[in-house]
From TrEMBL:
The keyword Ribonucleoprotein does not apply. This is LysR family transcriptional regulator. Belongs to the LysR transcriptional regulatory family. It comes from Mesorhizobium neociceri. Keywords: DNA-binding, Transcription, Transcription regulation. InterPro entries: LysR-type_TF_proteobact-type, LysR_HTH_N, LysR_subst-bd, WH-like_DNA-bd_sf, WH_DNA-bd_sf. Residues 1-59 form the HTH lysR-type domain. Pfam families: HTH_1, LysR_substrate. CDD domains: PBP2_CrgA_like. PROSITE patterns: HTH_LYSR (PS50931). Signal peptide: none annotated.
Length: 299
């Protein structure tokens, strides 16, 4: 039995929770995937997956083996790349998790990366909350703000830029806020990423002002906040990626420019820097350069 191949198949089944989906990803038949996993279980003398007609789940032993299997496969891939020619082919699939605005930003730019590397595939995952990188088989994830998990490799690649905005129809007939305390007289739309979303932080260049707001609308997706703001539902703090084009076209108005929202670090996290496959380092380099090419995130 090819243990490395079986481990690679097990990882894909664990990630997709489906033999048929793993078979498609690996360009194998479903019976072949099932045979490889069964052979691996026989080799390790333990059951790795619970199988029913309607569901698939990892056993306790499967959960324990998952990170070790990932390290073995990554080490073998790194060995193959190191022993190859200088122009080694970038191939395989990379799972990249991003907050929605940055996911849209990167999605607009992925075509040139994929064109440069025909054998590379990217799973772009737009996720508002942090992932379990190992359990979800995530290769790279971008997180905004401090990263609390000290077991992960964390690399800061830029800074967020956001604006307090509202639609012209909402502001019509109302006093436009000039300082954070003025916001209390307005309807607010809050984005609840990684928390309750009911505290906004602004900076005058020297100090941060944290304001507790009482929102009329809370959403756990930034696109929903964006659309509600365009519709005139109230004030919102939006990434420049979402708000910038609407500000240019006059569909949104930048409010309180002397007190912009506090900037947050943009961090990319990954399980380990050891034996990173060429496919992962290629996507990481592309991600870093894309963020640095945007003046509002690079500074």
């Amino acid at each position: 039995m090819d243990v490395v191949s079986a481990l690679r198949t097990f990882l894909r089944v664990a990630q997709t929770r489906s033999f048929s989906a793993a078979a498609i990803d690996l360009n194998l038949t479903q019976p072949a995937v099932s045979r490889q996993v069964s052979a691996l279980e026989a080799h390790l003398r333990t059951r790795l997956l619970h199988r029913t007609t309607s569901a698939l789940a990892l056993t306790v032993e499967g959960e324990q083996i998952l990170p070790m299997a990932l390290r073995v496969v990554e080490a073998v891939e790194a060995l193959s790349e190191a022993s190859g020619t200088e122009g080694a082919t970038v191939s395989g699939k990379v799972r990249l998790s991003l907050p929605t605005p940055l996911g849209l930003f990167i999605g607009d730019r992925l075509a040139r990366l994929l064109e440069s590397h025909p054998s590379l595939a990217v799973d772009l995952i737009l996720r508002e909350e942090p992932s379990d990188l190992v359990a979800d088989a995530i290769d790279l994830e971008v997180r905004l703000g401090p990263v609390g998990d000290s077991s992960l490799i964390c690399r800061r690649i830029g800074w967020t830029t956001a604006f307090l905005v509202a639609s012209p129809c909402y502001l019509e007939g109302r006093d436009t806020p000039r300082a954070p305390q003025d916001i209390r007289d307005h309807r607010c739309i809050c984005y609840s990423r990684a928390g309750d979303g009911r505290s906004w932080s602004f900076s005058d260049g020297a100090d941060d002002v944290v304001l507790r707001v009482e929102p009329r609308l809370v959403a756990n997706n930034s696109m929903a906040v964006h659309r509600a703001t365009l519709a005139g539902a109230g004030l919102a703090v939006l990434s420049h990626i979402l708000a910038g084009p609407d500000i240019e076209k006059g569909r949104l108005v930048k409010v309180m420019p002397d007190f912009p929202p506090t900037r947050l670090p943009i961090n990319v996290v990954y399980p380990t820097r050891k034996n990173m496959p060429l496919r992962v380092t290629t996507v990481l380099d592309f991600l870093v350069q894309s963020v640095r090419d945007d003046a509002l995130m690079a500074a």
